[in-house]
Amino acid sequence: MSRWKFVGRADELNRLLSAATGAQGRGLFFSGIAGIGKSRLLREVVAALPRETYAVSLVAASATTAALPFGGLVQLLPADQPPGLSPAGILRWAVDVVQHQAAGRRIVLAIDDAHLLDPPSAAFVHLIARADNSTVIGTLRDGEQLPLPIRALWTDGLVDHAELSPMCPADTAGLLAAVLNGPVDAGSADRLGRLSGGNPLLLRELVHAAAGSGELTSTYGVWKWNGRLELAPSLTELIDTRIGQLTPGVRAVVELVAFGEPLGLQLLAKAVEPDDVETAEERGLITVVRDDRRLDVRLAHPLYGEVMRRNCPVSRTRRLQARLAALLQEVGSRRRDDLLRVAVWRLDSGTAQDGAMLLDAAVQAFTRYDVPLATRLARAALHAGGAFAAAELLATILMFADQPEEAIGVLDAVAGDVRDDRRRSRWLTVRGMVSYWGLSRESTVEEIATRGAGLTDSADQARVLAFEAIMRLHRLDLGLALRLSRTVLDRPAASVAARELARCTIAHLQAAQGQLRRSATAIELTQSEAARWRTDMPYLQLALELARGTRLTIGGDLAGIDAIAADEFADLAGAGDFRLGTGYLAILQAYAARLRGQSDAALRTSLGACAVLATSRVYAGLAQAERAQAAALRGDAAQAAEAMAEADRTHAPGMAVLYPWLEQARGAALAAAGDLPGATRHLAELADRLRADGFAGHEAHVLHDLVRLEGATTPVGPTCSDGSRRTVAQRLTELSERVDGTLVPLLARQGRAVAAGDTVELLAVADDLAGLDLVVWAAEATAAALHRLRTQRSPLVGVARERLAGLLGRCDVVRTPALRAGAPTLTDREWQIARLAADGETSRVIAERLYLSARTVENHLQRIYGKLGVTGRTELRAALRAIPGHDGGPVD
């Protein structure tokens, strides 16, 4: 595999650069474990130092030169040493050679693996560090014996010493994306990062092994690792070398921890000798960490466990797992996940005989959204005689594992066991869920309504009604969905899960209608009851997040989106491969990034959502619509059109309630392609449809899209009594009194300002939008004001231009029609001249570079000043920064 790109480590890189170039001459040594990236960091700094200012020497010490006098400096000193010199004389000669080679420049001596320096070379490094015109930087490996002159570097105050920590998750994901030439699925990046322990060398070996075995695949340009780990021989050898030879007792410690981590220290002490535990800890094979009042034992590196588990014979593996289960059952379950751990050990060791325990463990795994583990345990529970309860749970989990056909088969196999109303209600709702959302059979709604009517128990009826209500909502039977949901809430006998599912249906509908405060109250009530419904209906969280996401997006609450993306559910869903959860949250994150102008993150995150949801019909169309929006934001009309085609292909008819998002994205795609009349017509028709459906919250956003396209005076809605129709701006004003929150009144102000040509109000609106972090909308409002101010030759042009430049400076690539319409047009030649002039080049220099006459350059500059509304070069750079898509940087 070729050399990897250098990614991340910005703080460490800057710190080492500052040490090398600082005026005080104090150097810096980074220490760390092998493969952590010390050498690469040092080489990046060496490559960045200008040779005209610094005399830079890189010395790579090694075990082969450690036994030779001055062997570590073989790359630095001449081959022939002067004869007859004492050891001290040779040192002085070596220092003189380096000073002579520097020729007056400041000396920077970089030592890689300084712990391997021979004594004379180490003494030389210490002497150089003491020179007034020298700085020494370097790397050390943890746990190695250091030459005394090297250790004295920081004890004498000549250099600083710091530990190089493992790469953070963000840097690991960035490195993976750079190496694979594309973004990596967040779950895959997290798992690879945890397995490598943030060690770039181990990460490289993992990626090499995964790429070689076909475990890394790309969907919609996003790389995903399937989670299997085929260890390459080089990686196994590397870990084996670090583990070394083990005594039987120490091996028993490491193996038990490998199969049981985190393992309580007291539990481990019951199975092995305490001396062996101490030896394993001293050798750096295990670590003991405090978790609340308990001491847990973990392996020092995740890959140690992989190697130990791979090398352990099957018979011993099963014996160890059975021993762990027996130990934990002997001391009794004390933690929430102890049941889960015992069930897995029993299952893996072939000693699982208690179907009820397996079923309880499967429920617990599902409540933690660990879909693969829950599936495995539920299957085992069914095979162990779990009958109906196990089949119901397994079918439910299979639905969320994108295996609806198998789920239907599991349910039909136990149809004969449905002997009472309680089982019938549960069987009907699970089968209805799989049929409606998993297989996209819309007739399921009528089927579940008909069969549910035959139930006699009020609680059982309520469960079926709650499911029918949310299905009705999703296919836009809005009035009936609301009535059914209220019926469930009015029934005292209804279970908590049924009541809260019904409440989520109402909360979603209220958000779409613009009743954001009522929606928030309903969502908070459902969330407060989570502990009571999660065991029965963990997937209710999806309905809750859909309602909450609808409310936050309509309210423009980007901070709220950030909060739910950082919530426990996001972590659990990501770790447990709960794709509907991670996919939907990724869509929300892409939305927030898009409105902030972070188009790179928006496109990358929406592509990730498309990849995660590629095998699911529930949110696949929504993910593609958000991808279309992100592409349109960047002016990528081709990708926006492609994404909309995929949205149409993958959108499930049973998710019709999501049509506002898809159709709004279609308007953005049309506008990005330059079809502004088509986009305006489409959005106006969409606004009328939303008005008819009572979706005032969505309607306000669509009307705002029309304002952004200079359509504030476009007629919408029905004809009034006087034969006229309301304009977009007038309808937005009406909605500002109906839709809760601060956003829609702000959008209505923008609509009125655009219709009236009120530039002062537009700038005020832009400031308020920027205060809500809605940077793109703020930039567009500012650009609209700037365009009008230029036409009026107003003295406020400079103020507006500076504001626009500042807003665009917070964005990545943003090329919306609203920004393009208000931007002055420069020819390629004018752009070249403007960039050079903004960099301070004189007309004569510009003329020489572009092979023009000085008079021609001056004529061009005058035209440029007129187009940009500036009077000279002092205002030119800000004016260029205020042109979307251009950064005002130097000409190549």
From TrEMBL:
Organism in which the protein naturally occurs: Micromonospora endolithica
Keywords, alphabetical: ATP-binding, Nucleotide-binding
One of the entry's Gene Ontology molecular-function terms is: ATP binding
Q: Which taxonomic lineage is given here?
A: Bacteria, Bacillati, Actinomycetota, Actinomycetes, Micromonosporales
Q: What protein am I looking at?
A: LuxR family transcriptional regulator
What are the GO BP annotations of this UniProt entry?
regulation of DNA-templated transcription
Give a yes or no for keyword ATP-binding in this entry. yes
Cellular component GO terms held in the UniProt record: cytoplasm
Give start and end of each HTH luxR-type domain: 819-884
What PROSITE patterns does the annotation carry?
HTH_LUXR_1, HTH_LUXR_2
Pfam family name, one: AAA_16
